[in-house]
């Protein structure tokens, strides 16, 4: 999983969480794809873009009961500040039967949400809706008992690399299988390990947001809409808060990622099967509480397609930001990852002019120096600034699957070539 150095440690005087769309525009950089450019001179310390909340995210299971699901506060494993769980304390307001399930050991399955207090809980519920708690709880029912950490093995050699055709063929087989409702029902018997369940939570959040956007636009427009995603060359609106169309237009790194970690294809398929089978309307009808909104569930079920799940899985590597324990040190824990679609059009530079500032679940991008009109606005994807160009390239190629074409690398390579020519 690519990681980055997002942290609050650089936060001195928090800039306002406003977005300033007129400050930047997205254009194509021939060497690195879509990229953000300043439309006017921007002073140092200026927030060029911000998002209050990610479109989709996950907190890794080992940290789930140590991190507030709303403000992402983490206190080195101390849990005493977390006083509320899931929708605890709100039971009396429920319309239907309580959606608590039991696992094989007779323990209650929760939704995996812990909050500092009623205020954090209320903020989360106001944004995500109470039915999201039930959806997460339903998904948690698929989690295999026992402890499984992230399972990513060492890189494979060339001979074992997956091809695009092999990936397509594998997914086509899944598409064939799912034609039979009986087969899909059987998929419900499969359980997921922790890594798979955590990735499935991220996908579920994204698709639940999509379903909500879709149903509300249906309600307001009262006309049929096209569910298909926009093409990959779409230039999105410049707003830190985004919808599915911007999310789905992010660069997909499925092939590069699976070629590096081929065994993950199996995890991806298990995740898809769990989502598909557990959120079938029929599967939910006998289990979910009265407050789950049927139209949203029906739309959600229809959005759990091979295409949409692959989109979400392919976006994670290369676009997600690590949620790092702050302040950032060598020992900081990576608590999870989050995708903020509006912020994913910033390219990497080995001498960046924009820094990331995480403030709770909000992320803002702030200039580190004055940036001239027309200049590219770039962040650093990792902590590579102190490395040689060869080290930087390796780090970026290994973690982010691209050969860096930033101005600093081009200049460093050119200087080395010139020095070599002079010495011969
Ligand atoms: C988060 S996306 C940035 C937006 C992307 N350019 C696009 O068109 O969607 C990261 C991807 O942008 C490209 N990229 C970013 N910085 C780059 C750089 N310095 N050199 C080459 N490619 C870069 C790589 O393909 C990388 O995987």
UniProtKB/TrEMBL annotation:
Coiled-coil stretches: none
Residue ranges constituting the SET domain according to the UniProt record: 22-382
Stretches for region Disordered: 1-22
Compositionally biased tracts (Polar residues): 1-12
Pfam families in UniProt: SET
Name of the featured protein: SET domain-containing protein
Domain of life: Eukaryota
GO cellular component: nucleus
């Amino acid at each position: 999983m690519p990681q980055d150095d997002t942290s609050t440690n650089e936060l001195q005087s928090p800039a306002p969480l406003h977005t300033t769309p007129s400050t930047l525009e997205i254009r194509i950089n021939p060497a690195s794809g879509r990229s953000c450019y300043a439309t006017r001179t921007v002073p140092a310390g200026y927030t060029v873009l911000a998002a209050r909340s990610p479109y989709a995210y996950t907190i890794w299971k080992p940290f789930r009961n140590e991190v507030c699901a709303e403000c992402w506060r983490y206190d080195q494993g101390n849990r005493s500040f977390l006083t509320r769980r899931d929708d605890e304390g709100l039971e009396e307001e429920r319309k239907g039967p309580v959606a608590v399930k039991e696992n094989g050991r007779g323990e209650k399955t929760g939704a995996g949400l812990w909050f500092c207090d009623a205020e954090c809980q209320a903020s989360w519920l106001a944004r995500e809706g109470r039915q999201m708690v039930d959806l997460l709880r339903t998904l948690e029912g698929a989690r295999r008992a026992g402890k499984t950490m992230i399972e990513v093995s060492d890189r494979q050699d060339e001979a074992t690399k997956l091809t695009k055709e092999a990936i397509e063929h594998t997914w086509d087989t899944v598409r064939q299988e799912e034609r039979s409702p009986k087969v899909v029902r059987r998929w419900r018997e499969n359980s997921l390990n922790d890594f798979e369940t955590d990735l499935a939570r991220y996908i579920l959040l994204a698709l639940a947001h999509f379903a909500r956007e879709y149903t509300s636009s249906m309600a307001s427009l009262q006309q049929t809409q096209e569910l298909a995603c926009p093409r990959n060359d779409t230039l999105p609106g410049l707003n830190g808060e985004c919808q599915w169309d911007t999310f789905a237009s992010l660069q997909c790194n499925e092939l590069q990622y699976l070629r590096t970690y081929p065994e993950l294809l199996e995890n991806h398929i298990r995740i898809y099967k769990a989502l598909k089978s557990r959120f079938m309307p029929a599967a939910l009808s006998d289990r979910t509480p009265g407050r789950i909104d049927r139209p949203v569930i029906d739309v959600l079920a229809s959005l759990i397609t091979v295409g949409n799940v692959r989109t979400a899985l392919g976006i994670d590597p290369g676009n997600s930001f690590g949620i790092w324990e702050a302040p950032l040190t060598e020992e900081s824990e990576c608590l999870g990852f989050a995708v903020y679609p509006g912020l994913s059009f910033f390219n990497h530079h080995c001498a960046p002019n924009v820094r990331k500032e995480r403030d709770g679940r909000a992320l803002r991008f702030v200039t580190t120096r004055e940036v001239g009109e027309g200049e590219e606005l770039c962040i650093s994807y990792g902590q590579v600034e102190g490395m040689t160009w060869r080290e930087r390239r390796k780090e970026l190629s290994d973690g982010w699957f691209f050969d860096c074409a930033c101005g600093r690398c081009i200049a460093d390579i050119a200087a080395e070539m010139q020095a070599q020519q002079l010495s011969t």
